[in-house]
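re: that complex we talked abt at group meeting.

here r the seqs, copy pasted straight from the sheet so there may be weird spacing, ignore it
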Amino acid sequence: MRTLAIAQNTFREARRDRAQWVFLLYAAIVVGGGTALTPLAMGEGYRVTRDLGLAAMSLIGMMLIVMVGSGMVQKEIDRATILTVLAKPLRRGEFVIGKYLGLLAMVALVFVCMTALLALVLFGREGRIDPAVLWAAAFTFGEFIILTAIVVAFSTFVSPILSGVFTVSVFIMGHFSADLLRFAGRVEGTLLAWVARGAYMVLPHMEVFNLRAEAAAGLLPARDMILGSSAYGLLYAVSVVLVASAIFSVREFR
Amino acid sequence: MRGALLALLAAVLVGAAANGLSPQSDATLAGDRDLIYYPSGRFLKQAALGYDEAAASILWLRIIQYYGEHTRGDRTFGLLYHMCDVTTDLDPQFEEPYIFGSFVLISDGRQPGPAMDLLHKGRRMNPESWRLFFESGFVEYIAWQDTPKAARYFTRASRMPGAPEYTDQFAAWVSLRAGDVRTSIVLWKELAEHSQNAVIRKKAEQKVVELSAKLEASGSNTP
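got the structure back, here u go
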């Protein structure tokens, strides 16, 4: 219940920051960009709109998470509201989980709007909605679940700027995580192989949530892939939030 | 309020001046310069961070732009093969760069070798695509006059999922009427009627008119 109150407050605060306005940026890309580029695409307007729409969804979602999430905890510390909050019967872990859920709710709201808009635009163009596109969009939300946890974790112990930089870095490295495993295979038996494997275990596997190629080919994900990716995303996010709670619980405020 | 308007006006003027002075606005410097340094598809695939399809779509728009610029300009297409190659490295299932690229390389660029290389890559990456096999048959017949090979490609195209009936007819036509202008007209007509690409349709229509005139001049009837 206390966690829910923090989450509600965080959600309201994010809306006060006009975070939902990034949706307009997405609308400009999908509707404006799609309409302007279609005549130039030589019969490939649907494809261009779909690919740009899915890519922009992922990138704008990442931007939103970094923009709103990176200064979230620091703001409470600067305003000294953290002292008031923690003076109440509330565990620090509950505070972190509440922050995470509140931000995720905000991201989910924007995500739903972005998906609905993309589906509407594509439906207007082709007269049908390709389920593969919806699945690709749904998988993108898996990225958001993890990134939100990461930004909340960083925001508990570093400055907003560093938190943003670190989150974007993890996002980029997360897309290369499979390469680390390949690299480890090439330098087998060396210290580097261990380091690469360790980094692979720690970094999020962002490519697990990349179904954009399947969307382009009209392929639907297999049941095992849906279950595996969902379980991975949830467990990874839970472990990051637990680490964030542990860090936050030992932090001192003056 | 007046101050803000003046500041806005000044900003527009300074911005326009900056644009005017920018070396990029010089048409001689723009154009293909950025394309000369086009990285390999393998590098771009890494740099695309999983947004390969979006990057391929953007490169596709750049291909169209390049084609337009050079059609109005020097009518050489020296970088077209590389651009199509990079785009299809990013998204090997994107069929249009193979088809459009090979078509332009044959019809405008007079580069049948690279056109066939592009189609070979397309067939390797999309072994179930009748469009790529059909286009290969077309290029073999039009550019190389290799009738048996063209017939083989048309036959393979006709056996693939989604292939229209006329693909099977082409296999017979090119075998029976090798080197016949009428067969070429039928092939170009098919492209003019069925291609989704406006450039290909327009070119094919021109070719039908051109070949029909040639046929009439030689005293035969059009098919």
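couple things i noticed - The interface with chain B takes residues 37, 40-44, 47-48, 51-52, 54-56, 58-59, 172, 175-176, 179, 206-207, 210, 212-213, 215-217 of chain A (CB under 8 Å). Residues 2-250 of chain A form one domain.
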